[in-house]
Every structure is written in structure tokens, then in C-alpha cells.
Amino acid sequence: xxxxxxSFRDVHRAVQLxxxxxxxxxxxxxxLALNPLPAKGEETLSPAAQRGLVIVRTNCxxxxxxxKIGDSTLPIAPxxxxxxxxxxxxxxxxxxxxxxxxxHPTMPEFxxxxxxxxxxxxYLKSLER
Length: 129
What we know:
Layout: H1 2-34, H2 47-59, H3 83-86, H4 93-98, H5 114-126
Helix pairs in contact: 2-5
């Protein structure tokens, strides 16, 4: 009977280790699902830049190329990745808050709150790298 109790403890310990390993594997899987690793050549954006991406995708992507590659749908709309070549993107803070007024009639006037402006600038700065 003594051998039986010992083997029961061994089986119990093995089961505990298996459950522990499965628990750790599930935690890793959940972490990776919630925080996916960037694809090759893709960088991880800061939370502010991620919010900025959502804002420009929602409001600007119909005309402007908003990513690191691609052409703007509207030829007169500059790709966002080239804005820093024209001027410091920080210079857009005031126009984004007060309303961008442009020389062509096809661009709607946008006004963003200060938090959104900061997020947009963070995203535009991420395109400079």
C-alpha cells in the first residue's frame, strides 16, 4: 500500500505540473493575442500614435495616403509620410485645433480637440522614422 500512496503523490504532482504549464501557456497566448508582435518591418506605435492613426484613418484616408507606403487617392493630397519634408509636423498643432484652411475647395475643414491634436502629431511623427 505504501507504494500506491507514493505513486498517487507522483501522479498528483505530475498533474499539478501539467496544469501549471498549461496555465502559463494560456497566459502567454492571451498576452500575444492582446499585444501582437509587429510584423517584419512594422514598428510598434505608442498609444498616442495608435489613437492618432485611428483619427487620420477615419478622417483623412479618403484622400491622403496615411501610411508609410501607397499613393494618395486624391493626387493633390500629400501623403502624410512626406509632411515632415515640407515643415515640422508640430507646426500643424494650431491649424488642427483651429481648423485647417487650404487653398483647394475639396478639403473639408477639420477641428480637433487638444488631445486629438497631440495624438495626430504623435502619429505623424511616427511616419518620420
